[in-house]
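User: For documentation purposes, I need each entry recorded in a consistent format: the amino acid sequence on its own, followed directly by the corresponding structure tokens. There are two entries in this batch. Please keep commentary to a minimum and don't merge the entries.

Assistant: Recorded as requested. Entry 1:
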Amino acid sequence: MTKVDGRATRWAGQQERRRAEFVDAALAAIAEYGPDVSTEQIAERAGVARTRLYRHFDGAADLRRAIAQRAAELVTADLAPLWHPEGSPNEMISTVISTHLRWLTEHAHLHRYLARGVPDGPDVRGAIARHLSGLFTGYLTAFGLDPAPADTIAFGLVGYVESATTRWLDHPGTLTLPQLTGQLTGTIWAMLDHTLRAGGVELDPDRPLPLPEGL
């Protein structure tokens, strides 16, 4: 049997803890300085020299991937209502939209930072869209409809919401967050209702809808 080197195990654990601490510092720096945050600002926030920061990452790309991974974990935790929706169609849509908008507005700088893309990093938008696609597939199948449109609808809706929200963040005008939520909820239901009616299914958007089996 191979003897495990306790020192190596402790060192690896310390490395992971330091990486996590530096990623948290990077998130704080992004929140303070915006999406154009520099490595120097991240290092300053972490209380270390830039060269020391890179002892724990294989360059800037590795740091960006670690930040994106942490952001994906935060999104998954904060968007819990999206993973297990319940209530009427309007209630489910409104809950998901309001929760997503709250996250985007509270993490506006991080959202813009991630929107620029992270090579080989986790795709936060894609993760949300794929989950919605599975949800739509379950409902369309339960109604006896072709589930093929689920993927297109899911990715289209996520892109629509993020694009509309980004525009609102930059140019809010007199539109309040509740008003934006209401507009997006109504538009999304209209799109889903169109797909359902094309298959001969009519739903009351204010009547509770059970979750399909397997979801």
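Entry 2:
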Amino acid sequence: MVATPVKNLTLERFLALPETKPASEYIDGKIVQKPMPQGKHSLLRMKLLTFINSKLMETKIAIAFPELRCTFGGRSIVPDVVVLKNENIPKDDDGEVANVVTTAPDWVIEILSPDQSTTKVIKNILHCLDHGTEVGWLIDPAEKMILVYQPDRQVQVVDILENELIVPEFARSIKLNAGDIFNWLKLD
């Protein structure tokens, strides 16, 4: 991530700027551009979206979105996977999914890229938890480790591949362990 300090840049002015590829985030008055997703990152994101939506979208519990901008609590971030319970998905006047999300995700998942600052990603997950997110995952493909964050609890380090991952209460139908996730990287 590269941070670009801009004098007097407000959140409103940031949101009026054109979108960038890869996405830029607004954190503590600075523009921070996310790194370009690479192979492992992209494959894990796609598999997570498919798996989560196969369990939650069909039953109308929640929807997992890829790189959805969420603006809340003075920040505008674009997590790798945003899961919103159906009742928390914003709708426009026509009853369709709105383009703007102004709440924290119910579940946030970040996949660490090789050139990404772990500290900045953790700070975004903690910001989400401070604003109502139930569970946050930080997946580190290089270390084969997943950090699980919950409000008012110590971070859980999952580096034993057989250990089942904690999910939000609304997603209890999802049974995954770290081994399941990292096995998705094998194409056999």
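Summary note for entry 2:
The chain has four helices and eleven strands.
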